[in-house]
């Protein structure tokens, strides 16, 4: 006699649970778009705020220093009795670090990516890739002291006359620092290439190295180039390594054995209190920061263009 009532009660519970689940899902679907929009909005507003801040302070700097001197001179002596503001001395130091870093990072990063993608077993990949990515989590100040106290003495033993502060040592260490970025992004791009393409090339008699170099790498070219460009942007914006191991001598020359000063290192120097608030030296860090902002923005836009231009559809 109680069986129909029991069945009815069970159906009620099922319907009630369905309604609760639907209600929760419905609320979640309504809230999530707003939260995602808010996240995107905060990112855009932050970028606009940074650009406006740089723009306002940059205007104050160029009220006192001609644009022709800033972009047309190669002498940078902002704290001297006769200040000079030729930013190309800082740009030269930044470019030296970047070029040396990419010479180190690109071959090693791509070689690591090829090994992880094409040669390593699944067990080796699960062990080696996290270890490689741990390198990206080391604080840059540790890399800076590593460059100054370990790499520089080794280079001095190999290169007589090398100064304690130079461009070569921090450039090498910056390259080591960005290897995980290039290797990880490139490996992800290579792993996305379908296995049937590899099998087809192997079936035609290609070796594994030929498959990796002539098939997989061209197919993953957009991701590889994007990783290199992002690594280059990281090298341009590096601060602590070049501040500790590179010195503070802005010179417009390209000898990696001499001391340098990069754009970021100069900003750190002034931010430590070498110039008072409201002085021309203080506003100069915004001019240098704006130029650095433009460099990194151009590099990121180029990376996005390359990704879209060379993306392969499978």
Written overview of the protein:
The protein is an all-alpha fold. Helices cover 76% and strands 1% of the residues. It contains 12 helices and 2 strands; from the N terminus they run H-H-E-E-H-H-H-H-H-H-H-H-H-H. A two-stranded antiparallel sheet has the order 1-2.
Question: Topology of this structure?
Answer:
Elements: H1 3-62, H2 67-72, E1 76-77, E2 84-85, H3 88-119, H4 122-134, H5 140-158, H6 168-191, H7 195-203, H8 208-219, H9 221-236, H10 240-245, H11 263-274, H12 280-309
Antiparallel strand pairs: 1-2
Helix pairs in contact: 1-12, 3-6, 3-9, 4-6, 5-6, 6-9, 7-8, 9-12, 11-12
> How many alpha or pi helices?
12
Helix content: over 70%
Question: What is the average per-residue confidence, as pLDDT, rounded to a whole number?
Answer: 81
The span between the termini is 63 Å
Task: Indicate the proportion of strand residues.
Answer: under 5%
Strand order of the largest sheet: 1-2
Please provide the ordered H/E string of secondary-structure elements.
HHEEHHHHHHHHHH
Q: Structural class per helix/strand content?
A: mainly alpha
* Apparent shape: globular
């Amino acid at each position: 006699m109680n069986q129909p009532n029991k069945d009815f009660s069970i159906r009620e519970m099922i319907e009630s649970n369905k309604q609760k689940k639907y209600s929760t899902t419905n609320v979640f679907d309504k809230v999530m778009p707003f939260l995602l929009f808010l996240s995107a909005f905060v990112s855009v507003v932050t970028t606009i705020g940074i650009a406006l801040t740089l723009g306002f302070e940059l205007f104050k700097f160029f009220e006192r220093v001609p644009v022709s001197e800033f972009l047309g001179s190669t002498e940078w002596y902002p704290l001297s009795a006769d200040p000079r503001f030729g930013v190309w001395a800082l740009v030269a130091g930044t470019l030296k670090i970047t070029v040396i870093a990419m010479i180190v990072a690109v071959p090693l990063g791509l070689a690591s990516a090829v090994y992880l993608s094409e040669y390593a077993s699944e067990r080796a990949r699960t062990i080696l890739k996290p270890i490689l990515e741990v390198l990206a989590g080391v604080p840059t100040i540790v890399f800076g002291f590593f460059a100054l106290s370990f790499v520089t003495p080794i280079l001095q033993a190999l290169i007589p006359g090398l100064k304690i502060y130079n461009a070569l040592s921090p450039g090498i260490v910056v390259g080591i620092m960005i290897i995980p970025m290039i290797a990880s992004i490139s490996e992800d791009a290579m792993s996305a290439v379908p296995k049937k393409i590899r099998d087809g090339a192997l079936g035609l008699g290609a070796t594994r190295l030929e498959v990796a170099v002539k098939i997989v790498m061209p197919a993953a070219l957009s991701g590889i180039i994007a990783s290199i460009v992002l690594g280059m942007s990281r090298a341009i914006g590096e601060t602590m390594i070049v501040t500790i191991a590179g010195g503070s001598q802005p010179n417009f020359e390209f000898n990696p054995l001499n001391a340098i000063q990069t754009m970021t290192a100069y900003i750190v120097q002034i931010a430590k209190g070498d110039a008072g608030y409201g002085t021309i030296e203080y506003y100069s860090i915004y001019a240098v920061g704006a130029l650095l902002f433009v460099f990194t923005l151009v590099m990121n836009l180029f990376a996005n263009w390359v990704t879209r231009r060379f993306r392969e559809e499978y």
